């Protein structure tokens, strides 16, 4: 990894320090500052980690300039078109596409772990009915460590494997139950004769009173949404999972931390925020007003579903999502959907606007996903839980990778302290 021909030299007060430069298989070189504090007695300052690699990884690569997203080397558009979610899960977890036999076995394992401990039903019932499903998910996933003690010993590779499978398998059940609970309907048990996406749709939309047939096109669109969100290298929630896990916390607790981080509107909550924004805009003639607000420095309003920390050209997932939106609305016979019209026109006008071009702001994956999910019948409150269940495999793969790194240590960032220096306590009567 180290390119011995390259070093970076840092000069502080006339003293020089040579820093090794690490060369990745793809992406920019990385200056290794691990010994900087020991050698030079200084820290680096990088709020938001905009220039800092927190780990090495072989799972996902993003070229933000080219708009490229690769999982284990395979581009996301090919995976979205030719593969399916559980195969992508296998790829992320184990590094290679599975043989037919390995895929069968993996699918069988996941399918047979989809039920949750019956006692967990009571746990759901402890929440208020009007709780946001994300709030319920953070709680229930955190509680999994209380129900699955036999897979919380992280030093045992077999237990780590079982915990991984359990989370991928049970997350759709937990998300669907959070939804059913919030609308006052009975929980629907998973069905082993259905594929992963169909099973999720069935658990969300079936009721005991009548037969529910999952439309294969909707199931395919659902699977594609899962696939497009499966992993995204060291984003905020994944870094949260890695940081939580660095202390040796159990995997269920770590993923609960990831879900909590994902909830924020700058991250996974953006698809909900985006659809709400499109509805607030309401009609094409109001778009200029909202574009003007997004550009106004004194207005905190931002175009939701626009911009990305890493993609500065286009988000390759957004293209596939836009195509899926067209397919799903077509299938459901939703012609002239006003929200889709607003979305398309907003995208067009923003892309033509120099403000967005100069700042390299493009639609991200969340711009169209909300439209698809709403057309399928999901309320906006379910958008982020669906993102969370899709991303679980990414969190777990990165968590697993962290354990295989013999050099991994507890995450402990430093700080640039700007507070008071030492001062003596002043008794209350003297203040
Ligand atoms: N609308 C208007 N202006 C924007 C937007 C936006 N959506 N996004 C960024 N900008 C502007 C900022 O005001 C800033 O302007 P300045 O340079 O004049 O100060 C400039 O573009 C850079 O923005 P930053 O916030 O510094 O960029 P950063 O990389 O930190 O933020 C983020 C990325 C958080 C995604 C941001 O673009 C955003 O808030 N977008 C809307 C929320 C969203 O869609 N999030 C989903 C991300 S994808 C995901 O999580 C799956």
Structure write-up:
The protein is mainly alpha-helical and 431 residues long. Helices cover 51% and strands 7% of the residues. The protein is built from 18 helices and six strands. Strands 1-2-3 form a three-stranded antiparallel β-sheet. Strands 4-5-6 form a three-stranded antiparallel β-sheet. Strand 5 and strand 6 form a beta hairpin. Helix 3 runs parallel beside helix 18, helix 10 packs across helix 18 and helix 12 packs across helix 17. The termini are far apart. The site of acetyl coenzyme *A has 18 residues, from loops.
What hetero molecules are in the model? acetyl coenzyme *A
Q: How helix-rich are the residues, as a percent range? A: 40-55%
Structural category is mainly alpha
Helix and strand run:
EEEHEEEHHHHHHHHHHHHHHHHH
Over the alpha carbons, how many angstroms does the gyration radius reach?
23 Å
Sketch the major β-sheet: 3 strands, antiparallel
What integer is the average pLDDT?
Answer: 93
Poorly predicted ranges (pLDDT <50, ≥5 residues)? none
Strand order of the largest sheet: 1-2-3
Distance, first to last CA: 58 Å
Would you count the extended β strands for me?
Answer: 6
* Helix count from the secondary structure assignment: 18
- Structural shape: globular
**Which strand-content bin applies to the residues?**
5-15%
């Amino acid at each position: 990894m180290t390119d011995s021909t390259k070093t970076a030299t840092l000069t502080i007060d006339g003293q020089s320090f040579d820093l090794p430069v690490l060369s990745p298989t793809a992406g920019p070189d990385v200056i290794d500052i691990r010994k900087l504090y020991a050698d030079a007695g200084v820290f680096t300052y990088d709020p938001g980690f905009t220039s800092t690699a927190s780990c090495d990884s072989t799972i996902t690569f993003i070229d933000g300039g080219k708009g490229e997203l690769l999982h284990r080397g395979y581009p996301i558009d090919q995976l979205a078109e030719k593969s399916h979610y559980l195969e992508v899960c296998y790829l992320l977890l184990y590094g290679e596409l599975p043989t037919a036999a390995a895929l069968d076995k993996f699918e069988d394992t996941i399918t047979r772990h989809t039920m949750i401990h019956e006692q967990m039903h009571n746990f759901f019932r402890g929440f208020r009915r009007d709780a946001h499903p994300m709030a319920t998910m953070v709680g229930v996933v955190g509680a999994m460590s209380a129900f699955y003690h036999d897979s919380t010993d992280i030093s045992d590779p077999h237990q780590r494997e079982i915990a991984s499978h359990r989370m991928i398998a049970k997350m759709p059940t937990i998300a669907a139950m959070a939804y059913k609970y919030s609308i006052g309907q009975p929980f629907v048990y998973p069905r082993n004769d259905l594929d992963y996406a169909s099973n999720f749709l069935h658990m969300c939309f079936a009721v005991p009173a009548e037969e529910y047939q999952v439309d294969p096109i909707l199931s395919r669109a659902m699977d594609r949404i899962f696939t497009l969100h499966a992993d995204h290298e060291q984003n905020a929630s994944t870094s949260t999972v890695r940081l939580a896990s660095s202390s040796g916390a159990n995997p269920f607790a770590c993923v609960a931390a990831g879900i909590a981080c994902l909830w924020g509107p700058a991250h996974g909550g953006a698809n909900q925020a985006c659809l709400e924004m499109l509805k607030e805009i309401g009609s094409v003639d109001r778009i200029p007003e909202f574009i003007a607000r997004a550009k106004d420095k004194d207005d905190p309003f931002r175009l939701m579903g626009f911009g990305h920390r890493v993609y500065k050209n286009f988000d390759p997932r957004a293209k596939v999502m836009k195509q899926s939106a067209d397919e799903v609305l077509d299938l459901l016979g939703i012609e002239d959907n006003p929200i889709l019209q607003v979305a398309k026109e907003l995208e067009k006008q923003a892309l033509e606007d120099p403000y967005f071009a100069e700042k390299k702001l493009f639609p991200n994956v969340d711009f169209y996903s909300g439209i698809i999910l709403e057309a399928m019948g999901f309320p906006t409150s379910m958008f982020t839980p669906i993102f969370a269940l899709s991303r679980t495999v990414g969190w777990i793969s990165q968590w697993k990778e962290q354990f295989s790194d013999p050099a991994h240590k507890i995450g402990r960032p430093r700080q640039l302290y700007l507070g008071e220096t030492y001062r003596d306590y002043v008794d209350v009567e003297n203040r």
